[in-house]
Specification:
Shape: globular
Largest sheet: 5 strands, antiparallel
Helix content: 10-25%
Strand content: 35-45%
Radius of gyration: 11 Å
Structural class: alpha+beta
Number of strands: 5
Distance between the termini: 13 Å
Length: about 70
């Protein structure tokens, strides 16, 4: 499954994308790691993708709340 990511380049996050049909949020970090969080709602993903501080939204709302799968 390929999720199109957009550049973020803030707070250690290089890029991120969301598949609303599968409810998967994919995040690429500056260190090259790529992870996917499953069962993420569209509003949460939108808030993260459009945040002025995406790292804060990630830590506060996503990191511990959704199942994670390491892709790379």
């Amino acid at each position: 499954m390929a999720i199109e990511r957009k550049a973020i380049r803030r707070g250690g996050i290089k890029s991120a994308g969301y598949d609303r049909n599968l409810r998967v949020l994919e995040i690429e970090f500056d260190n090259g790691d790529v992870i996917q969080h499953t069962a993420v709602g569209e509003e949460i993903a939108r808030r993260f993708l459009n945040a002025s501080s995406p790292a804060s939204v990630y830590k506060d709302t996503i990191q511990e709340e959704f199942t994670v799968k390491r892709i790379r």
